[in-house]
Design brief:
2 domains; globular; Aminoglycoside 3'-phosphotransferase, Chain: A, domain 2; 39% helix; 5-stranded antiparallel sheet; Phosphorylase Kinase, domain 1; 9 helices
């Protein structure tokens, strides 16, 4: 992939960290441009946001990463963050975490069902850990970290009532295999906290269910996730076959402006998916 023209502030920030080599664009990350590089031989990842909404997401992630790291979540260390309103860019530089992306194991043929199921169980445990984690307070006068407020601003339709009536927790907002790194059956990293905030945990659990169905994972994978998270806890969030599609559709509409045709097709497919009880 061709390397785009980069803002001067990014070049200066990288150079201040050390000698930069092997700078290249990587695939993945629908919302922002992501680059990999080496600084004094150490691997780093760079996320660049262009435009108001994408810059806001980069700022959100830059704010959260140090707090998540302090709380012992498996996230990248923040090395640098630069916000350039005059140039229209915001970017952060992070440690590059070890492990392979969670989607890699899903693309192997024949699929190793046992590995996928064990990772699904581990992902459920990890989601429960995220939701039970308390981080240092975040100044938020504009409600940027209020997940329900994020969703309300992103679409004309009202958010499902179930999202308004449950305790608030730390929520990733896009938690699935695509935003994880793995070594064997252990998760080594949680990626892309740009839409994270504080809201109902049902958001992450419902989205995980949809990603499992969308990627046609083995039928044992979802029960393993539920086992890892705890069926009782999920049921207490208000999980029902009627509520879950409404929550997932709300989350899909948040992403729709970036790829309307793709998300419209997914919204249409969602209507035909059977939602299991927990």
């Amino acid at each position: 992939m061709t390397l785009p023209r980069l803002p001067l502030g990014l070049i200066e920030a990288l150079s201040a960290l050390g000698r930069v080599t092997d700078l290249a664009v990587t695939t993945g990350g629908a919302a922002n441009l992501t680059l990999f590089a080496r600084v004094d031989g150490a691997q780093v990842a760079v996320k660049v946001g262009v435009g108001d909404e994408r810059r806001a997401r980069v700022r959100r992630e830059a704010t959260l990463l140090p707090l998540l790291r302090e709380a012992h979540l498996p996230v990248a260390g923040l090395l640098a963050f630069v916000d350039e309103p005059e140039s229209g860019f915001s970017f952060l530089v992070m440690d590059r975490l070890p492990g392979s992306n969670g989607l890699d194991a899903l693309q192997v043929r024949p699929l190793d069902d046992e590995v996928v199921v064990e990772r699904a169980r581990a992902l459920g445990r990890l989601a429960r850990f995220v939701h039970s984690t308390t981080i240092a307070p975040v100044a938020d006068p504009e409600g940027q970290f209020d997940l329900v407020a994020q969703l309300t601003r992103s679409q004309p339709e009202p958010v499902p009532t179930v999202l308004l009536n449950h305790p608030v927790a730390l929520v990733h907002g896009d938690l699935g295999f695509h935003n994880t790194l793995w070594s064997e059956r252990s998760c080594t990293g949680l990626l892309d906290w740009e839409v994270a905030g504080f809201g109902p945990p049902l958001v992450d659990v419902a989205w995980a269910w949809w990603t499992f169905a969308f990627r046609s994972l083995p039928p044992e994978a979802w029960p393993a996730y539920v086992e890892g998270y705890g069926a009782g806890a999920i049921g207490a969030f208000g999980w029902t076959p009627e509520v879950v599609p409404a929550v997932v559709a709300c989350l899909m509409r948040r992403w729709r402006p970036g790829a309307p045709e793709a998300w419209d097709a997914r919204l249409a497919a969602l209507a035909g998916l059977p939602v299991p009880e927990v």
